[in-house]
Design brief:
- The protein is α/β, with parallel strands linked by helices.
- The protein folds into two domains: about 350 residues, Alkaline Phosphatase, subunit A (3-Layer(aba) Sandwich), CATH 3.40.720; about 100 residues, Arylsulfatase, C-terminal domain (2-Layer Sandwich), CATH 3.30.1120.
- Helices cover about 30% and strands about 15% of the residues.
- The chain contains 13 helices and 18 strands.
- The strands form five sheets. Strands 6-5-7-1-8-10-2-11 form an eight-stranded mixed beta sheet, with helices on both faces. It has a four-stranded antiparallel beta sheet with strand order 13-14-15-16, with helices on one face.
- Helix 1 packs parallel to helix 7, helix 7 runs parallel beside helix 9 and helix 8 crosses helix 9.
- The longest helix is centred in the middle third of the chain and has 26 residues.
Length: about 475
């Protein structure tokens, strides 16, 4: 049954949570499932350094000096921070489908959220077409856990079409929502943040009463529609950011409102007595765009600013205050949740790896994926970087720029800003990484850009969103 996206009455929800929490301790123990619950929270367009949470222990620029996210600070302190976490794509829908399937956007044939440009755009290359649908043949994270006895829910932005969440393994959901949904919700429920939190709390209470393990994904609409942030929050940031434009102020305010909504979900878990048996994962669908950032690039770019994102994990057996510096990706969530839930069979096409050892504190554990490295494929025009592919393995990252035909090589441990291209000085490493990238593109049957026969180099170049941005040191 699909729940409408209305905000539940606060008094009714409070009574529901209080009644569940007031059950005798023995009854709570008897109803506790031996299998863990999962709450996955996915922010929209939130940069790696967009929280007040430090995302690297040795980098002062890995946290925002402006944004206030105290509840996410609490979540980070109670669990694991992944300093080298990646979204599978630099834009939203490809990341969302990759999380649902544990496969790379290249393999799925969906590498850009919007349609690709055609020859009339006068780009040097023609990007490939996009599938832009979640195929019925793909087995999603929701379907996998649902088949294993879990109650499943998806709240917020779906953006994958194909019949919506209910057609792909979710018992409770808000429907087939996209970016348009954010604009409908204003103060006192900015972009439906608090409504989503309340619906998630009610869902978890129902599952607790039924003594059934659950998986709830909250795909927050924030940071879309920053003009819809709470008036009170916006006023505080207007005072803190006197020289900023309205959009920047709104995004900062909405970031804090999002943090408040995250806190309400965490409070619901505490009130229901479910916190100790629930894995809570917080991440973003891609890096942010525009502004002064800790890393080069933004949305639509395969530079670190476009794909590196926050990843926080709290749950049973996850040590408090832990760090992970191993490169991990959103494609790793499906096999990880499956392993933690005790699911025995994964779809053979899954490209992600099980992160359980890292979650348990083995910071040097290698992630066993079917193929080496993390592949990123964005053969499109959106940022100033143009069509690209990239692969990260260990400390190195190779980036292929299709317009120039050149491959760049970076040592991300020594040079996280990607300021020094090592392609000329380390030819052996370049050759190794080139071979791995070529193999990954061939294995996934990645669609590549091709020359535009109508390209006119004398004409004005097409306008693009900024993806390179400035670097903050």
């Amino acid at each position: 049954m699909t729940r409408s996206p209305r905000v539940l009455a606060a008094g009714l929800l409070a009574a529901l949570l209080a009644a569940a929490a007031a059950r005798p301790a023995t009854a709570q123990a008897e109803s506790a499932s031996p299998r863990p619950n999962f709450v996955l929270m996915l922010a929209d367009d939130q940069s790696w350094d967009g929280l007040s949470v430090r995302m690297h222990p040795e980098r002062d620029d890995s946290r925002s000096p402006i944004h206030r996210t105290p509840r996410l600070e609490e979540l980070a302190a109670a669990g694991l921070r992944c300093s080298a976490a990646y979204a599978p794509a630099p834009v939203c829908s490809p990341t969302r489908i990759a999380i649902q399937t544990g496969r790379t956007p290249a393999a799925l044939g969906w590498t850009k959220a919007a349609k690709s440009v055609d020859a009339s755009a006068n780009t040097r290359l023609l990007p490939p077409a996009n599938a832009r649908r979640l195929a019925d043949s793909e087995r999603t994270l929701g379907e996998l856990l649902q088949a294993d006895g879990y109650r499943t829910a998806h709240f917020g932005k779906w953006h994958l079409r194909s019949g919506g969440p209910g057609a792909h393994g979710y018992d409770v959901h808000d429907g087939d929502l996209g970016n348009e949904a954010a604009a409908r919700f204003t103060d006192p429920n900015p972009v439906d943040l608090f409504g989503m939190a309340e619906r998630a709390a009610a869902f978890m209470a129902d599952c607790r009463k039924a003594e059934q393990p659950f998986f709830a994904q909250l795909s927050w609409h924030a940071l879309h529609a920053p003009e819809n942030a709470l008036t009170s929050t916006t006023e505080r940031y207007r005072e803190r950011m006197p020289r900023a434009n309205a959009k920047a102020i709104g995004r900062a305010a909405l970031t804090e409102d999002l943090d408040t909504a995250v806190g309400r979900v965490l409070d619901a878990l505490d009130s229901l007595g479910l916190a100790d048996q629930t894995f809570v994962v917080y991440t973003s669908d891609n890096g942010g765009g525009g502004g002064d950032r800790a890393m080069r690039g933004g949305k639509g770019s395969l530079s670190e600013g476009g794909i590196r994102v926050p990843l926080l994990v709290r749950g049973p057996g996850v040590p408090a205050g832990a760090w992970c510096h191993e490169p991990v990706s959103g494609i790793d969530l499906l096999p990880t949740f499956a392993a933690l839930a005790g699911a025995t069979e994964l779809p053979k096409e899954v490209e992600g790896g099980d992160l359980t050892a890292l979650l348990r504190g083995a910071s040097d554990a290698e992630v066993a994926r079917p193929h080496p490295g993390l592949l990123f494929h964005f053969p499109h025009y959106q940022s100033n970087d143009g069509p690209e592919s990239a692969l990260r393995l260990d400390r190195f990252k190779i980036v292929r720029h299709y317009e120039s035909g050149q491959d760049a090589l970076y040592d991300l441990e020594a040079d996280p800003h990607e300021a020094r291209d090592l392609a000329a000085s380390q030819p052996e490493e370049l050759a190794r990484m080139t071979g791995l990238l070529d193999a990954a593109l061939e294995r996934t049957d990645a669609a590549l850009p091709r020359p535009n026969p109508e390209f006119d180099p004398a004409a004005d170049p097409p306008a693009r969103r900024s993806g390179a941005g400035r670097r903050r040191r």
